[in-house]
Design goal:
Blueprint lengths: L7 H25 L11 H10 L30 E4 L12 H13 L6 E6 L7 H23 L6 E5 L12 H7 L1 E7 L1
Parallel strand pairs: 2-3
Antiparallel strand pairs: 1-4, 2-4
Helix pairs in contact: 3-4
Length: 193
């Protein structure tokens, strides 16, 4: 039997390969058992940029918003009971087909009010699982998907629909239970006069 001599640096490389393989198997098993997806790794530059974009706040106050993203309390328009809520699966921004009746309600309200300078705001929200920066991004993706769908259905420019990403700063139910977290994974569509 031939012996293979491993250089000192080679032992570290072999250990890293074995560790990577074990981590891969671990996450494969977790995902196959219905676990949640791991949060993607980010570089130090991305972490620094997201820290600038979303300032840390000691209390669960809303994420700092620019002047154009701030939305006043909804003024419920005649014949429309708002806000319309669209719920999402865990760690997803995909719109389920069973919510298109909500889009129909919004479309009917916008048609009734056509020509009166409507302002449509879509607020994205997430549950509290995962880091704040990730939940802000996820809530923004959810709001953008809903805004894109509304833009196509209503035949209005996408730029006319405002987006607000709340992350997990505006829960409507406790994040301590699965049912509460499911209610917090949502977007809310507001129509303002």
């Amino acid at each position: 039997m031939a012996r293979v001599k491993i250089e000192p640096g080679g032992k570290v490389l072999i250990a890293l390969i074995i560790l990577s393989a074990l981590l891969f198997l671990f996450f494969t098993v977790i995902m196959s058992k219905g676990g949640r997806a791991p949060v993607p790794a980010r570089s130090a530059t991305e972490v620094a940029e997201s820290a600038k974009a979303v300032p840390e706040q000691p209390s669960p106050a809303p994420v700092q918003q620019t002047a154009e993203e701030e939305a006043p309390e909804p003024a419920v328009r005649q014949g429309y009971a708002g806000p319309a809520k669209i719920f999402f699966s865990f760690n997803h921004a995909r719109i389920n087909k069973n919510v298109y009746c909500i889009f129909d309600r919004i479309q009917n309200a916008v048609r009734r009010e056509s020509g009166q300078g409507l302002r449509i705001v879509v607020e994205g929200n997430a549950d509290s699982i995962g880091p704040k920066w990730y939940n802000v991004q996820l809530s923004r993706m959810r709001a953008e998907r809903v805004a894109d769908s509304l833009s196509r259905r209503l035949g209005i420019p996408r730029s006319d629909i405002e987006i607000v990403a709340n992350g997990f700063s505006k829960p409507i139910a406790p994040n301590s239970t699965p049912a509460g977290r499911a209610e917090n994974r949502r977007t809310e569509v507001y129509i303002y006069p």
